[in-house]
Amino acid sequence: MPSDPKPTTAEVHQKLVDQYTEIARLAGGLAHEIKNPLSTIKLNMELLAEDLQAEETPRHRRALAKIEVVERECQRLQNVLDDFLNFAKVRQLRLEPTDLNEQIRQILDFFRPKAAESAIEVKPYLRSDLPSVMLDREQFRGALLNLLLNAQQAMPGGGELVISTEAGALGVTLRLIDTGCGMDEKTQGHIFDAFYSTKPGGSGLGLPTTRKIVEAHFGRISVKSEVGHGTQFTVELPVPKRLPG
Prior knowledge:
alpha+beta, single chain, Heat Shock Protein 90, 7 strands, 5-stranded mixed sheet
């Protein structure tokens, strides 16, 4: 009897995509199921705190302190669940020909007040001859904001953040260079791993989500860093051979 034909590469790829989609759907459903009782717990903690605030006895103050701990942990879990849902969702992009420099300017307008509060000087060097790229503008802005916030957290005492763009033979390159605390080789090897974080209370999903968004755009992201000397993230995006329209 003739043997069954081997599946093609496209069929194998589609099977993996279908499996991932199902896992992401189940994980997202579980996260939503957790969020509902969590909201109930948080609300009841707030109401209980209101009932106790009128009392001034040591016992009531101790009870309030414990309630505050529960409320903080509820909020932390809420943040983790929100980050996880963003990380786990299947990326269905709405790609449009886009001026990358303009997207950067828009997100920098939003980020500059945060940078000023942290004594961070933002220096954009955006090449005017940049070709258009295909972006899902909303999702890519989210990825870029993750990188900006990561740089802000790396410079708690202030510093300098350079954002540059340039065109190359294979596409467009975006670089973000900060003068922050930097990372050792071990940390660099794990920063794109889900749930890996060196920050207290961090979900460890910001940079992995950024990588997923960049890769969904058929791009790639890399990092170079040195402890005490800062970090450079490089995002490379392809330029379409022919824009639609």
